[in-house]
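Form P-L/3: holo structure prediction, ligand heme C.
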Amino acid sequence: MKELGMVLFGCLIFTGFFATVIYPDMEYKGYPSTHSCTGMCYAEYVEVNGTVVEQLRAKQELANLDEFSNIRSLWSGCAACHGQEGQGMAVFPKLAGQTQDYIVDRLNTYKNRGEVGAMSSTMWGQAGMLSDADINMLGKFIEVELK
Ligand code: HEC
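OUTPUT (holo model):
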């Protein structure tokens, strides 16, 4: 019976060693930071920033709210001549302050190679590549955003 006692004692020592030294060590293996944001911390984060899904949804809504999001890159081409704010530069006419109807009418004239001023041919190539939807949106953009 002496041997059995020693085996049991050995097991006890090992279990104690495992529970106090090896196991706590193992638990954090692969997790360099034990400061994960869970429980209260996560609740606070959500309160301030919203959940990840809410954040994505808000971003999507912002993009949807900006009906001109597709037209802005197109406008940057126009802005090279007409100015970022449509203020006009040198020989390039000012577009800011015009109505959508006015802009649409002009662009359609240029698209059909019509003459407006002496430099109309400059605009023929510009307007020629615009779809009707582009022209409509550019007109609206200029009326609404470039006052
Ligand atoms: C290379 C320079 C250049 C670029 C780029 C350009 N334009 Fe023009 N734009 C002109 C010039 C020059 C005129 C004057 C043409 C004329 O004499 O009729 C003009 C005239 C216009 C007019 C008529 C203004 C008026 O009061 O009669 C509109 C509207 C217009 N541009 C819109 C645009 C839009 C929208 C874009 C982008 C898709 C664009 N332009 C890109 C040079 C440019």
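COMMENT: The chain has a mean pLDDT of 86.
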